[in-house]
Description:
The complex is a heterodimer. Helix content of chain A is 30%, strand content 18%. Chain A is α+β, with helices and mostly antiparallel strands. Chain A has two domains: 38-167, no CATH class; 185-272, Immunoglobulin-like, CATH 2.60.40. In chain A, the strands form two sheets. In chain A, strands 3-7-6-4-5 form a five-stranded mixed sheet, with no helix packed on it. In chain A, a hairpin with a 2-residue loop joins strand 6 and strand 7. The longest helix of chain A has 16 residues, at 55-70. The radius of gyration of chain A is 30 Å and the shape is rod-shaped. By secondary structure, chain B is mainly alpha-helical. Chain B folds into two domains: 2-90, RNA polymerase sigma factor, region 2, helix turn helix motif (Rna Polymerase Sigma Factor, Chain: A, Orthogonal Bundle), CATH 1.10.1740.10; 113-184, Winged helix-like DNA-binding domain superfamily/Winged helix DNA-binding domain (Arc Repressor Mutant, subunit A). Chain B is built from eight helices and one strand; from the N terminus they run H-H-H-H-E-H-H-H-H. Chain B has helices at residues 2-16, 20-41, 45-62, 71-90, 118-125, 130-141, 146-153, 157-184, and one strand spanning 101-102. Chain B starts with a helix and ends with a helix. The model of chain B has no long low-confidence stretch (mean pLDDT 81). At the A-B interface, helix 1, helix 2, helix 9 and strand 7 of A face helix 2, helix 3, helix 4, strand 1 and helix 5 of B.
Amino acid sequence: MKLEDLFKERLEDYQIKVDNTVWEKVNAKKSTSNPSTVKSDNALNKVVKAIKTNATITKGVIAAVSTAALAGAGIIAYNNFKEHVPQTPIIENTDNNSPVNDDITAVITEDTLKTIKESKNKEDILPKDIFAIAEDSVNLDDNWKENRELDNFVIQPSDPVILKAVQHSDTVIKEPHFDTMRTKNDYQIKIKIPNVMTPNGDGINDCFVIRNIEDYPDNKLVIYTGNGKKIYSKEHYNNEYCPQNLQEGTYFYTLTVRINGFKKDFNGVITIIY
Amino acid sequence: MVSENKEIKHIIKLCKKDDPTAKKQLYEMFAGKMAAICYRYLDNKEDVEDALTDGFISVFENIGKYKEGNFKGWIYRIMVNSCLSLINKQKRFVMRENNTFFDKEENVEIDNPERFSSQDIMNALQVLTPREKVVFNMAVIDGFSHDEISQRLNLKKTSIKAMVYISKVKLRNYLINLEQERNRK
């Protein structure tokens, strides 16, 4: 029986008992997701959520926004954010004792600043107001995709708002039980292919010796001249190629190694010198 | 089967009118199965309950949009989406390309399938890494096309193929070990 059929068949009508609390939650329509995080990939939402869920950060934000308002002229400089990384984050968490996961840096544009300046009591401005403005004007999805590999998230210079979510190195998405490494190592091919041969019969570097190739018997080696003419081809290569009367120059090889149904190609250059 | 379909249709009709008893009935009909789906994608009870809650809320919110067709498939889809968005939100792992190339469709056979219960199969899934689990579930069990998975998870199709194959090998090895252990006892 095919594995997939077995899995499909056994799981089709499989049921797991559910706690009554789930129904209560469904009935009460208490969604576990924050309404502002519907677009889960949106970095801005992530920042907003981080701020909303952390009271200490909220305080930090308000304080920092006031500072930003005072330093209004300096803000525009950050529009070329990538070239001019600010030395000190404008918004930072000031309370070191709090268990904070995210530092948040935000740069606010003139429009937003105007709003902040016009309001009499700066403490009245909640971060969500600021970010609500930001949300209207920017769609971060594309940038987020582009930068998702980075720890920092940066909006393009032309955008009206620049936000930077910096995560502490230990909380960066390091996926604790995400063991690609094991999978990779299972199929990692540890061979070492030389790039030089001196087939002059002195017993040193006379043969094309690929280290550890004996561990991967299911392989195929082809060697070409610089013009692309095939001069050697061997399946299950085991370091037998010791050429004679070969001209000095550059040759190419392609080595295909198969292991457990996976295939990996190695291509490269061999230089022959005497 | 026919009567069951009729019953579901009737319940759906009532649900569209926001009838509380019908909602409860619908929930009870599907909660167990849906929980099983969530357990396949997620690995702890809290996440499963969150995904389940969100899923059912979205089912009831969108039931007006359901016209006809396979209701089971529709509700399955919503649940899987709910799980995926939870995974996405938590960013517990990043979908990365798997750079191993895999060039053949290979069948993985299981010799005596009758020896494995549904519970064994569920346990077997736990040997996979979280992202292998997601890909395997989508590709093999829930029948998403490779195109769609590649779009949803932002992965290359070659990676998906390789991951499905790795998963199958891991699962087979698990099942073989399980059988051997049982034989020893």
